[in-house]
Amino acid sequence: MTDANRGFQGMPADTTTLDMIEAGDLLFAVEYRHVGSEEGPSVHVFGEIDGTQEEILRFDCFNKAPHYHYGFSYIDQPAIPIDTTAVGDPLEWVCGRIQKRLPEMLTKAGAPMLSASCDPERLEEVAVTLEKRAHELTLDSS
């Protein structure tokens, strides 16, 4: 597969502008994005796969159609909707997945080797920080 055809064909994260949070071999970031008529915080999970830094998970907590992606930068897979009727606030749900289900999600995204970086205490700190930053960014955007 050529680089032009890799992954979901959406807008890649500009890692040069993101304030990264480290947790072992993983990097996390949150930004507030405007995409068409959608807006809201996006949570990114990065890690190295086969010597290349990849966006392993992306959670778009948009106001109209929140969704997430497995292997955003390297797997061509459609977005998976977040059912806000079932889960409530998408950002809280995302932070809960980071705290409690990240190893399983990394495996599904084709990055099981990064599960060793999933120290539960550190992931709880990361989730709290991401949620706080996302709320600050949301307030700043209004």
Protein architecture, described:
This protein is of the alpha+beta class and 142 residues long. Helix content is 31%, strand content 28%. It has helices at 84-87, 90-100, 102-108, 120-141, and strands at residues 21-23, 26-35, 38-49, 52-60, 67-70, 80-81. Strands 1-2-3-4-5-6 form a 6-stranded antiparallel β-sheet. The N and C termini lie far apart (41 Å).
List keywords for this structure.
about 140 residues; alpha+beta; 6-stranded antiparallel β-sheet; 4 helices; 6 strands; globular; disordered N terminus
List the helices and strands and how they pair.
Elements: E1 21-23, E2 26-35, E3 38-49, E4 52-60, E5 67-70, E6 80-81, H1 84-87, H2 90-100, H3 102-108, H4 120-141
Antiparallel strand pairs: 1-2, 2-3, 3-4, 4-5, 5-6
Roughly what percent helix? 25-40%
Q: Identify low-pLDDT runs.
A: 1-8
Q: Report strand %.
A: 25-35%
**Terminal CA distance:** 41 Å
Radius of gyration: 14 Å
Structural class: alpha+beta
Number of contiguous helices:
4
Biggest sheet: strand arrangement: 1-2-3-4-5-6
Q: What integer is the average pLDDT?
A: 90
- The number of strands is 6
Order of helices and strands: EEEEEEHHHH
The biggest beta sheet is recorded as: 6 strands, antiparallel
The tally of structural domains comes to 1
Shape: globular
